[in-house]
C-alpha cells in the first residue's frame, strides 16, 4: 500500500534495515501510520510549534508528526541502528526534520528549537517517568516546553490524573497537576505495538500552566511527596517524622490533621506544608 508521504510501509522499513526490536531499549514500535497521525494530532498546534520527539525508532510517530504539518521536528534517538531509516524520512522533509543520535537525557532542546516547543514521545516506560518528573520540576516556570504528549503504561496514566482519595493518587499526580493540566487522550491495546507489550498503554497530554497552581519550591515539594507517599499507609505524623521533630505542629499550622494519610491531602495542602517546612 502506498503511504501519504511516499515512504515505504514501516514493516518494510524495519525488515530492510534489520531493525529488530531490542528489549533492553524498551522498543515496542508503532507501525500503523493512521494511529501515529492520530497521536500526533493530540499534541496541539503543530503548524506553529517546534516538536522535540524522543525515541523515534524507525520513525512511525515522526512521520505522523510531519504528515500532520509540524513546523519542525527534532528527533533524538539513542539507537544508532535507527539512523538509516530516519535519514530516509529526512530526505523527504529536508527542512523540517533534524535527527540526532543521542541520549535524550543529555539534551538541551533550546540549543536546537524555537519556542513554542511541544514534546512528543513514545518512550520506554522507565525513561518516560524519569523524564516526566524532570520536565515537571525545573526551578522556574513556565518551562521551555508548551506541552507534553507522552505514551505511558495505562496504569501510570491513571496515576498521573488521579484525584485525592484514590489509591492511584500519589507523587506523579501531585507533581503533574501542580503545574499542568494532564488529560488521558487515547488508550491503546497491546496489539497496537510490534512486538506487543504485556500491558495496555495510554497517551497523556499535559499543557503547561502559565504559573503553578500554588506556590512551592519544586525540589522541596518533590522531596515532601516522595516521603509522604513512600509510606502511604502510615499517618503523616509518622511518615514525615524524620523531617522535623515538631512535625505535628507544622501539620496543624497548615490545617492538616497529623493523623491523615498522604492520599487524603490535596495539592494546595501539600504546597502549603512544603512552604511551612521551608520556613
Ligand atoms: N517512537 C517509536 C514508535 O512509536 O514506534 C519507537 C518507540 S520505542 C517504545 C522507544 C524508543 O526510544 C526506542 O527506539 C529506543 O531506542 C528509544 N530510546 C530509549 N531510551 C532513549 C533515550 N534515553 N534517549 C533517546 N531515545 C531512547
Automatic annotation (TrEMBL):
Top-level taxon in the UniProt lineage: Bacteria
Boundaries of every Ribosomal RNA adenine methylase transferase N-terminal domain copy: 35-210
One Pfam entry name: RrnaAD
Binding site for S-adenosyl-L-methionine: 28, 30, 55, 77, 103, 122
CDD domains, alphabetized: AdoMet_MTases
EC numbers on record: 2.1.1.182
Alphabetized UniProt keyword annotations: Cytoplasm, Methyltransferase, RNA-binding, rRNA processing, S-adenosyl-L-methionine, Transferase
Similarity section: Belongs to the class I-like SAM-binding methyltransferase superfamily. rRNA adenine N(6)-methyltransferase family. RsmA subfamily.
Protein purpose: Specifically dimethylates two adjacent adenosines (A1518 and A1519) in the loop of a conserved hairpin near the 3'-end of 16S rRNA in the 30S particle. May play a critical role in biogenesis of 30S subunits.
Protein name: Ribosomal RNA small subunit methyltransferase A
Amino acid at each position: 500500500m502506498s503511504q501519504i508521504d511516499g515512504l515505504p510501509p514501516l514493516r518494510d522499513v524495519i525488515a530492510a534495515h534489520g531493525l529488530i526490536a531490542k528489549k533492553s531499549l524498551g522498543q515496542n514500535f508503532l507501525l500503523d501510520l493512521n494511529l501515529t497521525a492520530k497521536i500526533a494530532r493530540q499534541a496541539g498546534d503543530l503548524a506553529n510549534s517546534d516538536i522535540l520527539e524522543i525515541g523515534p525508532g524507525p520513525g512511525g510517530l515522526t512521520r505522523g508528526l510531519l504528515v500532520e504539518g509540524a513546523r519542525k521536528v527534532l528527533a533524538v534517538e539513542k539507537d544508532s541502528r535507527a539512523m538509516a531509516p530516519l535519514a530516509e524520512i529526512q530526505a523527504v522533509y529536508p527542512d523540517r526534520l533534524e535527527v540526532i543520535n543521542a541520549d535524550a537525557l543529555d539534551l538541551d532542546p533550546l540549543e536546537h528549537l524555537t519556542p513554542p516547543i511541544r514534546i512528543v514521545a513514545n518512550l520506554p516506560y522507565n525513561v518516560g517517568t524519569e523524564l516526566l518528573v524532570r520536565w515537571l520540576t525545573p526551578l522556574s516556570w513556565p518551562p521551555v516546553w508548551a506541552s507534553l504528549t507522552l505514551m505511558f503504561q495505562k496504569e501510570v496514566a491513571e496515576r498521573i490524573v488521579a484525584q485525592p482519595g484514590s489509591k492511584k493518587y500519589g507523587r506523579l499526580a501531585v507533581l503533574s497537576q501542580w503545574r499542568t493540566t494532564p488529560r488521558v487522550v487515547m488508550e491503546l491495546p497491546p496489539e497496537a505495538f510490534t512486538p506487543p507489550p504485556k500491558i495496555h498503554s495510554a497517551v497523556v497530554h499535559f499543557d503547561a500552566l502559565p504559573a503553578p497552581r500554588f506556590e512551592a519550591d519544586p525540589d522541596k515539594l518533590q522531596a515532601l511527596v516522595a516521603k509522604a507517599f513512600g509510606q502511604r499507609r502510615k499517618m503523616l505524623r509518622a511518615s514525615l517524622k524524620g523531617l522535623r521533630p515538631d512535625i505535628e505542629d507544622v501539620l496543624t499550622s497548615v490545617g492538616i490533621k497529623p493523623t491523615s494519610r498522604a492520599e487524603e491531602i490535596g495539592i494546595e495542602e501539600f504546597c502549603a506544608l512544603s512552604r511551612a517546612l521551608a520556613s
